[in-house]
Amino acid sequence: MTVTKLPKLSKAQFDSLGRELDDLRQRVIDDLGEADRKYIYDVVKVQRTLEVMGRGLLFAGFFPPAWVLGVTALSVSKILDNMEIGHNVMHGQYDWMRDPALNSKMFDWDTVAPAENWKHSHNYIHHTYTNILGKDRDIGYGILRMDEGQKWNPYYLGNPVYAFLLMAFFQWGVMLHDMETERLISGEKKWSETKAVRQRMWQKGVKQTLKDYVLFPALTGPMFLTTLAGNATANLVRNVWAFSIIFCGHFPSGVQTFTEEETANESRGEWYYRQMLGSANITGGPLFHIMSGNLSHQIEHHLFPDIPARRYPQIAPEVRAICEKYGLPYNTGGFSKQLASVFTKIVRLALPDSFWGRPSGPPAGTVGKGRAMRAA
């Protein structure tokens, strides 16, 4: 493990950083218009076309090539719905269009996770308390150990197994995330407090399950089982892809976490600082970025979650230049590199810190706004 020091920014530098990024955000908002509107309508059109094609081809599922093509089209449709449409629309990125179909308060996506629950745990909890240990429940999703600051216990020996299961059933993991199971087990939260959350989970989960595994398979008559298998496969593909992209943006080597103490009373510039150091990007081409919902630009997304994600590749060079100006790292790398780093961390943190010759808890020198950069 290598350790490099980050520069300590003064109050004046933090204030300057905040102003520069606020100005960048405002310039993008002022420039929103027809090109952004056309883009999201085009993506929705492609997504719906692929879904119709996929479901239509599954009617001919007895012919293997048709089944493969149908599953491929349906998988891409589900990925677009989840990543570039659902996630971004529910962030309010297109509320300015005043189109009810793309309004964050009305939109719901093609997964078992209820939109209202997700917006609370993701838009509010995660994006407010990004990478703050004890506050951001996306650090490990209440299941995994993804940071040295999470105290090790024997349960974490199963880290790789839990990660594999979460990847395969990711939409269900996202749905259950709002139950805050770890707080129920510890007694911090009462079962009765989850009533509204459970009701929404039940309603959405039943609706989605009937749609994917009963209604659409039944519509294909004698092809019921092959259609059911096709729908399950498309869901699996979407789950694995979403898990991979999201984990590569949050947990590869070099991404930092923070304590509640060091983030108390943080300024706007300090909040931006935390977003930049607590995120990572993935390099790739235009199609890769679209398929990732532009979460391949996780740094830009954490800085500006409410501007259309199609703008992230455009502003990325300017964000990177700002990082360089203040001596801050801009964590980016290829998909295979970032993914390998994530899975290395999952395996490494399954074992106690003493196994690696380290004292328990965060490595020395990692606390404070000029804290050391941790690299696996």
Automatic annotation (TrEMBL):
Keywords: Membrane, Transmembrane, Transmembrane helix. It comes from the Bacteria. The chain crosses the membrane at residues 57-80, 155-176. Signal peptide: none annotated. Residues 66-332 form the Fatty acid desaturase domain. CDD domains: Delta6-FADS-like. This is Acyl-CoA desaturase. It comes from Actinokineospora xionganensis.
